[in-house]
């Protein structure tokens, strides 16, 4: 029966409220707070403080009628302020602009006797008042089959409607959980901000008639959401209704209406009259409230001692988080650690300072000086070590220099008046030039040592040189080595490889030669793909001429030098294939002083083997073989066939010379010249040796022959850049590799050790 509908809410409209005069309040004032004249304002009712702008009784006790309350005795000695006739005020907050009141719970119950729905629905109309429904509230619905709405259907301009449904399992309560209002037996919905009117509706399509045995009633109320602690018994019993006597706490925002701060400040009725107060606009923009500034507290709506006063934070250091000394100041305070302690007094307790400031400063300075000293000493030690190392190196260099006979050599050179003939390179220069004898720079390795291609910087100009690092020489060989050096220094001829200098500061002596870019004659004749490109007769003759001139120069007085190992591998080819005769390093100065002869099988004069006495004639023989090799393009000694000289004699005998000659030069139409050259060669290899021509004669004769065959084509292309170049060059500095045919004879005085190595 809807007849039970209670429209109590209408009674609560503020219009009605304002008509309630305060005349009765005075009479009902609690005796304890009573007394005094008309000017006295009561600021407390029961246990509730009533600060200005709210108040009772005479008009001036409240800011306006809108803030006027009544204080009524509820009948048993307690006094409760009532704002609107029956609405109980719980408390008032100036700072937040809140006033908490008791709101009435709407219900919707099945009445078993009348078999109809019994209900009570509340509405609030705060339109044009100084109150609005706070967002701290939520619309809470409790029930098992309930759909309830909150809304404004009256005011067309501000229409809204929201709501929620509370359900529970039809046959039981086991799934309901305490404390959680989330749809099961309880639901809640937020409301829009700044709301001033609402009504509650229950949807009559949802009723509890079918489950009235379990849950007869549904409830709905707008209440302070933080106050709701849902219990499952709310669904099955009237507990929710009875807890606060059919009511629930609700929060209202109150404010000074119709003006925002900006406007209000210039208004004569500006409410924030206290000093150190400030104006705060309400969130919904319906007005403003006043607050005390930070660090002050009091009532910003009144002047004088009740207004905003400075907070003495130092009175409550725990609350304001000061662990040290505190000094209050208007609106703020200082928190610091007392003298003799240190730390952040705002963050935590201060610590006792262990040492006075002066002492700490002293320690700091001392530590600084000490660490500087340590660093300085460490640097000194490092520098000292380095200098010791450098000195040791220097000493060692000098030692080596002595050991290798550097002093002796200088003397020998000085005696000859030839001081500048040889450069003594510094250890560092050589190490740098060869990148510390980097393996990548090796261009040859042999029995005597290793040859590196190196780049020397002389007066800033880079020069490519060949650096020969000898195997260590023993005491016995020292003199020979030095003699060798002296010989090499003396020789200066365009067709003889030049010794630039040496370095005796390393553990093994190092010789520095000019670098021949185009390999050796050996390579020119045999090293390249056959017949490509052909080496012309003219070129061959020129090479022969230059080689013979070089040898003639060596043989000539005053410094008579025997080469001892004339062979194509020792004929280097420099720029433009100019001949550079090399590797007479182990030659001897003259017959009498010879000690270490050497030779290569095939080029070695057979007569030499009789007595091991090296003479100029031996060189002539070797040159003869070389000349034959130049003309025939054949190696003198090959396992598979007879040796070249024998073949020559044979072909000369039976007139088949032309077959023996290199086909490259046969067609050149200078057969007469070739034959004359062959004839010269055969004289060179004649036995006995006494009939052989001298190198001087050979050179002159060859020169005449070459005159008849002018070198038309440019000399064979430079070979530099070809992959095999470096290996070939390596052979040229007198080093034996596995392929070499050099034979060494050492210790000839005793004739004891004779070792002959054949390379297959
Ligand atoms: C007396 O006051 C208490 C607490 O305010 C209240 O619960 C009780 O109902 C009151 N009794 C009477 C008789 O009004
Ligand atoms: C205040 O109490 C008196 C009697 O105790 C009662 O007559 C009056 O209606 C009450 N006023 C309000 C607003 O409840
Ligand atoms: C309850 O709701 C049902 C249908 O939802 C309806 O048939 C019944 O009449 C309602 N009972 C009451 C008492 O309104
Ligand atoms: C459901 O509620 C009823 C009545 O309140 C109670 O007797 C019963 O024990 C509850 N059931 C469960 C499972 O909690
Ligand atoms: C709910 O409000 C009442 C009335 O002010 C109060 O006594 C109670 O402590 C509040 N409960 C919670 C949980 O805030
Ligand atoms: C709720 O409580 C109020 C006041 O105690 C009472 O008038 C009302 O009938 C109760 N409603 C229900 C459904 O129990
Ligand atoms: C001291 O501590 C507070 C809180 O931890 C911090 O805000 C402040 O910056 C600190 N002051 C100094 C000087 O470190």
Automatic annotation (TrEMBL):
SUPFAM superfamilies: EGF/Laminin, Protein kinase-like (PK-like). It is a single-pass type I membrane protein. The keyword Transferase applies. One of its GO terms (molecular function) is protein serine/threonine kinase activity. Keywords: ATP-binding, Disulfide bond, Glycoprotein, Kinase, Membrane, Nucleotide-binding, Serine/threonine-protein kinase, Signal, Transferase, Transmembrane, Transmembrane helix. It is found in: Membrane. PANTHER family: OS04G0367600 PROTEIN, WALL-ASSOCIATED RECEPTOR KINASE-LIKE 21. This is Protein kinase domain-containing protein.
């Amino acid at each position: 029966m809807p007849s039970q509908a209670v429209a109590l809410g209408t009674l609560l409209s503020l219009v009605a409220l304002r008509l309630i005069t305060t005349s009765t309040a005075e009479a009902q004032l609690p005796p304890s707070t009573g007394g005094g004249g008309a000017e006295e304002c009561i600021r407390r009712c029961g246990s509730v403080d009533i600060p200005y702008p709210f108040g009772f009784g005479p008009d001036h006790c409240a800011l306006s009628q809108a803030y006027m309350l009544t204080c009524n005795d509820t009948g048993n000695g307690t006094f409760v302020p009532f704002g609107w006739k029956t609405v109980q005020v719980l408390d008032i907050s100036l700072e937040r602009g809140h006033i908490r009141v008791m709101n009435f719970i709407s219900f919707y119950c099945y009445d078993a006797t009348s078999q109809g729905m019994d209900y009570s629905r509340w509405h609030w109309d705060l339109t044009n008042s100084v109150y609005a429904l706070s967002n701290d509230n939520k619309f809470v619905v409790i029930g098992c089959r309930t759909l309830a709405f909150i809304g404004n259907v009256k005011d067309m301009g501000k229409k809204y409607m929201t709501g929620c449904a509370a359900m529970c399992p039809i046959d039981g309560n086991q799934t309901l959980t305490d404390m959680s209002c989330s749809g099961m037996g309880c639901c809640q919905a937020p409301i829009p901000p700044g709301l001033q009117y609402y009504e509650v509706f229950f949807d009559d399509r949802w009723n509890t008639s079918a489950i009235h045995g379990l849950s007869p009633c549904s409830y709905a109320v707008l209440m302070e959401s933080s106050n709701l602690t849902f219990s499952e018994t709310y669904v099955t019993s009237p507990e929710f209704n009875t807890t606060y006597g059919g009511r629930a706490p609700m929060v209202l925002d109150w404010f000074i209406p119709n003006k925002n701060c900006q406007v209000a400040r210039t208004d004569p009725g500006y409410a924030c009259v206290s000093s150190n107060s400030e104006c705060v606009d309400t969130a919904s923009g319906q007005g403003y409230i006043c607050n005390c500034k930070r660090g002050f507290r009091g009532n910003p709506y009144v002047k004088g001692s009740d207004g905003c006063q400075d907070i003495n934070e130092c009175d409550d250091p725990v609350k304001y988080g000061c662990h040290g000394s505190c000094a209050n100041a208007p609106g703020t305070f200082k928190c610091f650690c007392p003298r003799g302690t240190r730390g952040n007094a705002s963050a935590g307790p201060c610590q006792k300072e262990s040492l006075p400031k002066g002492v700490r400063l002293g320690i700091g300075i001392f530590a600084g000086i000490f660490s500087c000293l340590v660093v300085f000493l460490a640097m000194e030690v490092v520098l000292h070590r380095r200098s010791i190392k450098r000195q040791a190196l220097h000493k060692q260099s000098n030692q080596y220099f002595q050991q290798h006979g550097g002093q002796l050599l200088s003397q020998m050179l000085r005696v000859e008046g030839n001081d500048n003939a040889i450069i003594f390179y510094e250890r560092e220069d050589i190490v740098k030039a060869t990148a510390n004898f980097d393996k990548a720079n090796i261009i040859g390795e042999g029995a005597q040592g290793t040859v590196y291609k190196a780049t020397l910087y002389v007066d800033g100009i880079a020069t490519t040189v060949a650096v020969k690092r000898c195997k260590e020489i023993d005491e016995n060989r020292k003199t020979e080595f030095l003699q060798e050096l002296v010989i090499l220094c003396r020789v200066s001829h365009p067709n003889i490889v030049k010794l630039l200098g040496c370095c005796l500061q390393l553990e093994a002596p190092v010789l520095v030669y000019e670098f021949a870019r185009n390999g050796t004659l050996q390579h020119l004749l045999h090293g390249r793909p056959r017949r490509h490109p052909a080496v012309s007769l003219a070129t061959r003759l020129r090479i022969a001429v230059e080689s013979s001139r070089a040898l003639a120069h060596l043989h000539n007085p005053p410094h008579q030098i025997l080469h001892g190992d004339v062979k194509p591998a020792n004929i280097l080819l420099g720029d433009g294939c100019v001949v550079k005769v090399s590797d007479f390093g182990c030659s001897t100065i003259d017959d009498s002083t010879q000690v270490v002869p050497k030779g290569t099988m095939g080029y070695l004069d057979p007569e030499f083997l009789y007595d091991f006495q090296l003479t100029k004639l031996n060189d002539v023989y070797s040159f003869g073989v070389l000349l034959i090799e130049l003309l025939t393009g054949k190696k003198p000694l090959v396992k598979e066939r007879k040796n070249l000289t024998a073949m020559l004699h044979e072909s000369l005998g039976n007139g088949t010379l032309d077959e023996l000659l290199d086909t490259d030069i046969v067609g050149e139409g200078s057969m007469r010249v070739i034959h004359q050259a062959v004839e010269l060669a055969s004289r060179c290899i004649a036995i006995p040796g006494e009939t052989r021509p001298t190198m001087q004669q050979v050179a002159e004769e060859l020169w005449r022959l070459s005159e008849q065959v002018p070198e038309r084509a440019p000399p064979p292309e430079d070979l530099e850049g070809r992959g095999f170049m470096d290996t070939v060059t390596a052979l040229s500095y007198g080093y034996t590799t596995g392929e070499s045919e050099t034979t060494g004879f050492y210790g000839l005085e005793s004739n004891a050790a004779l070792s002959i190595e054949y390379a297959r």
